[in-house]
Amino acid sequence: MKYSYSNVQMRAADDRAIASGVSTLTLMERAGKKLARKVRETMQEIGSRDALFVCGGGNNGGDGFVAARLLAEAGEYVEVLCLAKHFSPACITVKARYKDDVLGRIPRRRYALIVDCVFGTGLSRPPEGDEKMLIDFINNSGAYVISCDLPSGLTDGGIAYEPCVVADETLTIGLYKNALLLSDGADVSGKITVGDIGIDPDERGAEVWELDDVKQYFPKKKSNSHKGSYGSACIFAGGAFSGAAFLSAGACLKSGAGYTRLYVTEELYASAVGKLPSCVLNVFRTIDEDILKANSIAIGMGMGVSEELYRLLTQLLRLYTGTLVLDADALNTLAVYGADVLKTKSCNVIMTPHPKEFSRLSGKSVKMILRDPIPFATEYARRYGVTLLLKSNRSVITDGIRVAINETGSPVLAKGGSGDVISGFLAGTAARHIPPYEAACTAAFVLGRVGELAAKRMGEYAPDPTDIIELIPRVLMEISESRQA
User: Which end of the chain is more exposed for a tag (fewer CB within 10 A), N or C?
Assistant: First the structure.
């Protein structure tokens, strides 16, 4: 498992290292050394004979000056472009140690490799003036681009200002950073590597689950087991939109749960017969013993917002003791009729909103949520005692204490019905006696990986949610094979 940190946490780690006796200049020299090594390796890989460092006047620019000096001393041909008028104290020192001329205007010649050291962390405004001109120059250069720490123009929450460097590779200094994973960060950072400079945080960052973390939740099955060994899941879906029921239940069938029960309205029942033969199909009339004995329930997909659904949610929250997955119209109904009913719950609750649904629930604007999703998601999960899976290109999962950023995914999943698929798969995963937070992290990882596989096989435009369901077994096979390796 990797851990990722906010810029605030990173600065605190820097400050702690400095307080322990490690100077800012020492940290800058370490960072520059890591950057110089990465640049030299890349020059060899792409066959470049030279590199241009584009430096700002802050400490990120200082890292670039150090790397350029080290490469020049080693006999490599490098140049530095810097248009800054103001410099940090450390940057002034390392700039003076760089003995070659510094370019004071944008060169006409072309470079095969450009190193972006304009901005680091803490950017709180769109680039303008010379900084904007430098970023535009980098993006229009046609060069292979390495960004130092963060692509210049990227904010802490992963939002890219206009303009923002689009890097082929990012060497992030010290610690893995949230900005590289969230929102636009996934599109502008390229390949991410970490340059360790001996900084240790005093708190755990956001978890970034990897295959080894997920595979423990798909252990080899015992021969002496039966369907009851793997739990039962109930799917309450359809009504306003019938397709949601089949997508959600279909994904649940692929999750490994022992039983999948699909509850639909009487109007939908006739058309549902025979669609998913492996499901136990029921018309929902009232909450009965079979429902209350289920290990997990997913509800809300395609059901429409109504007082009737709110009454059902209220009953389930009060009577049910398993894991309740609230998706789609269950979330929208709580937003309309009141989410405080969550405080009366007797069950574990997993909520799976996308940003617009979370905006309705939290009262925060979508723009505000996307700017810094982790604190908003964590506060909401803590307030209501739930696990929240905030769906996005890089979903945030939190139970109010632990936080994870899911690193798998593909634009393939940006299509109606994908949410229904994850709710069903999540319900089936939770049914297998997996705790809510772990179930949410597992489901997000698997479905994200399925999206990646779908894009590889069919391109990013063609796959639909039924293709995603069909490819789930392929990813579970990959997980099984990794367990045996």
Answer: C
Q: Are 453 and 470 in contact (CB under 8 A)?
A: no
Two tokens, residue 459 = 């391109």
CA-to-CA separations, 448 to 249, 315, 427, 454, 479, in angstroms, rounded: 18, 33, 16, 10, 13
Pairing of strands 403-405, 396-398: antiparallel
pLDDT of residue 479: 94
Average pLDDT of span 282-310: 96
Q: Distance of CA 277 to CAs 64, 196, 220, 273, 424, Å?
A: 62, 54, 26, 8, 16
**Distance (Å, rounded) from C-alpha 94 to C-alpha 105?**
20
pLDDT for 402 beyond 90:
yes
Q: Please name which of 448, 445, 451, 418 lies closest in space to residue 248, comparing C-alpha atoms.
A: 418
User: What does residue 149 show for φ and ψ, rounded to 5 degrees?
Assistant: 75, -65
Token pair recorded at residue 26? 């020492």
Q: Is the dihedral of CA 332, 338, 340, 341 positive or negative?
A: negative
- Round to whole Å and give the CA distance between 347 and 291: 13
* H helical segments located in 320-417: 329-337, 355-362, 366-371, 373-384
C-beta neighbour count of 372 within 10 angstroms: 18
Beta bridge partners of 102: 80
Residue 208 CA to residue 218 CA, distance in Å, equals 18
Whole-angstrom Cα distance, residue 320 to residue 23? 57
> What's the chain's Rg over C-alpha atoms?
26
- 10 Å Cβ neighbour count for 29? 21
- Tell me the longest C-alpha to C-alpha distance in the chain: 81
Residues in the chain: 485
Cβ-based burial of 371 (10 A; exposed 0-12, middle 13-18, buried ≥19): middle
Helices (H), 47-113: 59-73, 89-97
- Could you tell me the pLDDT band of residue 241, with boundaries at 50, 70 and 90? low
**Higher-confidence position of 121 and 189:** 189
Per-residue buried b or exposed e for 461-484, using 16+ beta carbons within 10 Å of the residue's own CB: eebebebbbebbeebbeebeeeee
Helix (H, G, I), strand (E, B) or coil at 396: strand
pLDDT at 7 over 90: no
